[in-house]
Amino acid sequence: MTDSANPKRRNLWKILFGVSLALNLLIVGALGGAFMRKGKGPTANHLASGFLYMRALDFKDKRALRKEILRNKDGRKLDKDRNQASFNSAVVILKGHPFDRAAFANLLDEQAKHTKLRQSSARTALVNHIDNMTKEERLLYAQRLKGFIDDKVK
Fold this sequence. Notes:
The protein is mainly alpha-helical. It has two domains: 1-46; 48-153, no CATH class. The chain has helices spanning 7-37, 49-55, 59-69, 73-95, 101-131, 135-153. Helix 3 packs across helix 5 and helix 4 runs antiparallel to helix 5. The longest helix is centred in the N-terminal third of the chain and has 31 residues, at 7-37. It is flat, with a radius of gyration of 24 Å.
């Protein structure tokens, strides 16, 4: 009997191929994550400035700020429902023929406005949180922020 006719041999090759593929993906993911963490990856240069401000906070401050931002559960539920409806509307527009360019552009504009409102409330919470810091806490925060900025430039 030849190797190609032996089903056990074919299954062994399929398993080896699957394991090899999984290991390759694991390695690529680990390298990509390491590059992004060190600021060398392609997306690291496009991070929003707010990300660095949040990253420079210590764990206790991040947790407090996160609680402040997420405090309004009813508002979050409304946002989630609104987002779901908005994306469902996008699907309907995309499926339509002919494509309604103006309707899709308007939908994207509405989504962008909503995103700006959420960012604005997060910025306000950050400013309020920093305003409540002591002088020493702000100096430590500024040093951490400077360290992240210097790492990003390198």
